[in-house]
Write a structure and sequence with these properties.
Blueprint lengths: L15 E14 L2 E7 L4 E7 L14 E10 L7 E12 L13 H6 L1 H4 L3 H23 L3 E2 L5 E2 L11 E4 L2 E5 L4 H11 L1 E9 L12 E10 L3 H22 L1 H6 L4 H5 L7 E3 H10 L12 H8 L6 E4 L12 E2 L2 E5 L1 E6 L4 E9 L3 H10 L8 H8 L5 E7 H9 L20
Parallel strand pairs: 3-5, 6-10, 12-13
Antiparallel strand pairs: 1-2, 1-4, 2-3, 4-5, 7-9, 8-9, 10-11, 11-18, 13-16, 14-15, 16-17, 17-18
């Protein structure tokens, strides 16, 4: 008999099947027994009549089983089917499974993350994450972006030297990448439109619900693209991703209780306000901050709650942003940069800018930021040989997933989160 996946059972009504999976729960009513089994593709109820199965005492939560039987229609089932069982075989027993339906503390669950991910909610979140990745790649690939891989071990900082994880690279200093952006700029000069999608590392001593020390970023870079077009690419990507996940992961979003109407409103174009306008709005909310200070989480939340979709905050003070960002020609104290803030208090999900393409200005900025030009000599070469206006952005995957799924903390958006106090399991 050919093995079947649970997701395919609605097409097998009236047919004999064999499935393999894990027990999520079971109950009995007289001589009728009900075993609910999952296999990673779905969950189905298996009905056992009679006493032919002799190992009931060994049937515990997360026991791995092989079951044969006939698929029957059942309108009460979420899948519309159940299995009338003919045989049951135990593949792998599960003794004293530590996670029960009762409430467990966060530290306990994170310490048992290798098992917690089997729960319906956590599995749904990981499927949503996969759906987000599939949508991002689909959009970029379809629109002519070439995927390219920057190194994870780097000799220099892209975002700031205070958040680097340093390592000894055969006697020389090196760092885990904060961002692949500088390398993606080089690749854009070769391929036009490119993107990377991989892990990044920030040694930030932060315990907020928005931060991880290891997370994934998608980083597109585009030659011959200036500031306004850069924003348009960002909003098109975010809209496409959200709408694709709404379509393809609808049951997962419903299963975790996400408000779908809020996601259906995510349609481009997104509203845009300048940093100066943001400060005026915050002042009216009694959240005034001096000009030149960065927006914190409360400020981002207060601004985003005014809109029913993500909002761009643009034209930040130069001193707040990285050395490579292009100044506004009309106000050099500002840079052509933008943060895209998600609704519902999730904060920045995308950060991007037009990059400096003038060699003399970039050399000046390196000096102002006390960065050694010899380390960035290859990056300066990009301005020596055929420099062009170019732009790009970075989008953090985990924070994007947290917003789309409506989660309280980014630690649930990845299989094994790395936080300030957790590097195990």
């Amino acid at each position: 008999m050919t093995k079947s996946y649970i997701k395919d059972l609605p097409q097998r009504v009236g047919q004999p099947v064999q499935i393999e999976g894990w027990v999520t729960h079971f109950r009995s009513s007289g001589k009728i027994h009900f075993i609910v089994v999952r296999d990673g593709t779905g969950t189905v109820q298996c009905v056992v009549s009679g006493d032919f199965f002799a190992d009931w005492d060994h049937l515990t939560i997360e026991t791995a089983l092989a079951i044969t039987g006939e698929v029957r229609a059942d309108a009460r089932s979420p899948m519309g089917v159940e299995i009338s069982v003919s045989t049951i075989g135990i593949i792998g027993p599960s003794i004293d499974y530590p996670i029960s339906p009762k409430d467990h503390g966060t530290d306990f669950l994170m310490g048992h993350r290798h098992l917690w991910i089997r729960s319906p909610r956590q599995s749904a979140i990981l499927r949503i994450r996969a759906g987000v990745i599939r949508a991002i790649r689909g959009f970029l690939d379809h629109n002519g972006f070439i995927v390219a891989d920057p190194p994870i071990l780097t000799p220099a900082a892209a975002e700031g030297t205070t958040t680097l994880f340093g390592i000894d690279y055969f006697g020389d200093p090196a760092y885990l990448s904060q961002s692949g952006q500088l390398y993606m700029e080089a690749l854009a000069m070769a391929l036009g439109r490119v993107y990377s999608f991989g892990p990044t590392f920030r040694a930030e001593k932060s315990k907020t619900r928005r931060h991880l020390t290891e997370f994934w970023m998608v980083e597109p870079e585009m030659a011959f693209v200036e500031f306004t077009e850069n924003l348009e690419w960002q909003e098109r990507l975010v809209e496409y991703t959200v709408q694709q996940v709404l379509t393809n992961n609808l049951s997962d979003l419903q299963g975790i209780g996400r408000d779908l109407e809020l996601l259906r409103k995510v349609k481009a174009p997104f509203p845009r306000i300048t940093y100066d306008e943001a400060l005026e709005r915050l002042k009216s909310k009694q959240l005034e901050i001096p000009w030149g200070e960065d927006l914190g989480a409360p400020h981002e939340t207060a601004l985003a709650e005014e809109f029913d979709r993500p909002v761009f905050v643009t034209h930040f003070p130069t001193k707040l942003k990285s050395f490579y960002m292009q100044p506004d020609p009309s106000r050099p104290e500002l840079v052509l940069a933008a943060d895209l803030l998600a609704p519902e208090g999730y904060g920045e999900i995308v950060g991007g800018s037009q990059r400096i393409h003038d060699l003399a200005l970039l050399e000046q900025r390196l000096n102002q930021h006390h960065l050694p030009p010899e380390v960035y000599s290859w990056y300066l070469d990009l301005r020596r040989y055929g420099s062009v206006p170019h732009s790009g952005f970075g989008m953090g995957l985990e924070r994007l997933v947290a917003w789309i799924a409506g989660l309280d903390h980014v630690r649930e958006t990845t299989a094994f989160a790395r936080t300030l106090n957790r590097v195990w399991p």
